User: Fold this.
Amino acid sequence: MTALGFDDPDICRSTLEQIGLVTSLAAALIVLAIQPCEAADPVKIAVFDFELNDASAGIGIIGQDAIDTESLRESTEQARRMLSASGRYRILDTSSVAGEVISVGGIQHCNGCDGPLARKLGAEQSMVGVVTRVNRTEYTLQILVRDAESGAVVSNDFSGLRMGANYAWPRGVKWLMDNRILSAPRVP
Assistant:
């Protein structure tokens, strides 16, 4: 008698072959199930330069300086890098519409013009970032993503109060990107 309880070696061999076939098929199905689906085309997004909304008591005394400007540039670049690295987005250059943004007093004051400007660039979405300075060491950060065609808000994420001077703004961007924007499932 064999280990499977069969006296006939042909039945035993046939049973082992069937078990092997079923095991191989199950393993193949598991491998296929965990393979990533074919990636959708990246969303074309226009990421506008982040801006400062200085609501601090010092605004009349100390305006936006070179360090603020550099920190805003780094914040914008942080968002662009992370979007691009995710593979979910293709970043479009916004420099050709920069004059239009400036003429309306900045992207935060244009009443949703980022959507039409992004559409003009061929983008599907736009991203706007606004750092609000509460005082010289406290700030909030808002990142808004809008559908370029409809103008509908896709996401509106807010960091809450963060401690640290302007050098910390890119870290706030990284936190929002990691924990809100890029952690959200992609909407088809």
User: Anything to note?
Assistant: Residues 140 and 161 are 5 Å apart (CA to CA). Strands lie at 43-47, 51-54, 89-92, 125-135, 138-147, 153-158, 162-163. The first helix runs from residue 9 to 34.
